[in-house]
């Protein structure tokens, strides 16, 4: 079956139907610039426009760049502050008339990488980090996600890590790849001290340029680039919706935490 995956980012809102048997997009992505101001009402209108583009009537998975618990948004580091306390699921369900699941953007990208990309079949502790406007994080233990970890806000040298080492900061401060990598390495060292991961997966907007910096990143753990690049959020959102709102799987998975088994037979 297909689920519509929608990835809400600071600059664009992108969606496509995802074939859950193969993890592939079943149609070209549709992208609409993120509205300014990115208020809940404005964003919900764009989400509805993406769904209309595909004449969608079925489950939708949606990423959001903030803490999302049970469909409610708790923070707004890189979106309009009026999102804090907003019920994203209720808003998007009203706007699209479809069942919707909303989860943190890095959690979604991590799920996709664990099922279909760089984390496939990887055991132990895996940390996915996304470098874009901010720094997103997702941590998996034996394939199970601990949601909303927000490691990008870990203080390093008195600043949020994402205010020192996001891809946006690299651009804004015109850092060389080596200068930026040094800051990222400091962040990875903190992560290692706290979590002793077996693997880091490096994704987000910056992963398109992985050949420029992967060789500069250092840690005790193995470090690999994300494989799904631009599509990780869309695919991960669809996978998450499969586990929570897709009618065919709802009963079978209701008692499960966000598992990362491939969607065989769903
Ligand atoms: C937000 C996270 C998000 C990350 C990447 C951070 O500023 O707090 O929730 O995952 O940016 O978008």
Can you give keywords for this protein?
single chain, 266 residues, alpha/beta, Nucleotidyltransferase, domain 5, 2 domains, 6-stranded mixed β-sheet, 9 helices, globular, disordered C terminus, binds beta-D-glucopyranose
Short structural description:
By secondary structure, this protein is an alpha/beta fold. It has 9 helices and 15 strands.
Could you characterize what this model shows?
- With 266 residues, this protein is α/β, with parallel strands linked by helices.
- The chain has two domains: 2-104, Nucleotidyltransferase, domain 5 (2-Layer Sandwich); 118-227, ATPase, nucleotide binding domain (Nucleotidyltransferase, domain 5, 2-Layer Sandwich).
- It is 33% helix and 24% strand.
- It contains nine helices and 15 strands.
- It has helices spanning 40-53, 88-96, 105-116, 162-165, 167-172, 177-195, 210-213, 232-244, 247-253, and strands at 2-8, 12-19, 24-25, 30-33, 60-64, 68-69, 72-73, 100-104, 125-131, 135-141, 144-146, 155-156, 159-160, 199-203, 222-225.
- The strands form four sheets. Strands 1, 2, 3, 4, 5 and 8 form a six-stranded mixed sheet that branches.
- Helix 1 crosses helix 2 and helix 3 crosses helix 8.
- The structure holds beta-D-glucopyranose (BGC).
């Amino acid at each position: 079956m297909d689920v519509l995956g929608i990835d809400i980012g600071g600059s664009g809102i992108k969606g496509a139907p995802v074939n859950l048997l193969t993890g592939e997009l079943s149609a070209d992505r549709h992208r609409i610039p993120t509205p300014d101001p990115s208020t809940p009402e404005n964003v919900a209108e764009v989400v509805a426009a993406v769904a209309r583009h595909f004449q969608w009537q079925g489950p939708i998975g949606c990423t959001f760049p903030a803490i999302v618990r049970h469909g409610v948004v708790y923070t707004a580091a890189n979106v309009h502050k009026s999102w804090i306390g907003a019920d994203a699921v209720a808003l998007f369900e009203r706007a699209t008339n479809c069942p919707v699941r909303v989860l943190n953007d890095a959690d979604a990208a991590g799920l996709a990488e664990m099922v279909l990309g760089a984390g496939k079949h990887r055991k132990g502790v895996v940390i996915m980090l996304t470098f874009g406007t901010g720094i997103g994080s997702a941590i998996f233990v034996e394939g199970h996600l601990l949601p909303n970890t927000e490691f990008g806000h870990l203080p390093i040298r008195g600043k949020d890590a994402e205010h020192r080492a996001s891809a946006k900061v690299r651009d804004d401060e015109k850092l060389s790849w080596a200068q930026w990598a040094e800051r990222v390495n400091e962040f990875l060292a903190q992560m290692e001290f706290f979590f002793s991961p077996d693997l880091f997966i490096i994704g987000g907007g910056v992963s398109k340029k992985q050949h420029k910096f992967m060789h500069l990143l250092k840690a005790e753990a193995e470090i690999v680039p994300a494989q799904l690049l631009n599509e990780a959020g869309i695919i991960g959102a669809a996978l998450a919706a499969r586990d929570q709102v897709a009618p065919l799987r709802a009963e079978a998975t209701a008692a499960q935490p966000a598992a990362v088994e491939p969607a065989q037979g769903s």
